[in-house]
Amino acid sequence: MAANPQPDWLSCLPSSWAYGVTRDGRTFFINEEAKSTTWLHPVTGEAVVTGHRKTSDLPTGWEEGYTFEGARCFINSVAVW
């Protein structure tokens, strides 16, 4: 099964909202009209868990993640292709 290129939480994001990701992989939301941020999705009222996180026990530039099928994987965020 192929991963959805645009997750549900992103496709239902209101037009005046954007999102960002902290260095440790946590998703936050930006209300561009009100100039405010929140950890909670503006429609669902819930935090978004992407399955990606950076941990101190991984080498610099690497993140732990999970595929949509639940398989554990590691992501090199500094690799040049």
From TrEMBL:
The UniProt entry's GO CC annotations, sorted and at most eight, read: cytosol
Q: What molecular function terms (GO) are annotated for this protein? A: phosphatidylinositol-3,5-bisphosphate binding; phosphatidylinositol-3-phosphate binding; phosphatidylinositol-4-phosphate binding; phosphatidylinositol-5-phosphate binding
Q: Please give the chief subcellular localization of this protein.
A: cytoplasm
Taxonomically, the superkingdom here is: Eukaryota
Keywords, A to Z, come to: Cytoplasm, Phosphoprotein, Repeat
Localisation:
Cytoplasm
Q: What is the source species?
A: Betta splendens (Siamese fighting fish)
Which Pfam families is this protein grouped with? WW
Domain WW: where? 11-44
Q: Which InterPro entries match?
A: WW_dom, WW_dom_sf
Q: Write the protein's name.
A: Pleckstrin homology domain-containing family A member 5-like isoform X19
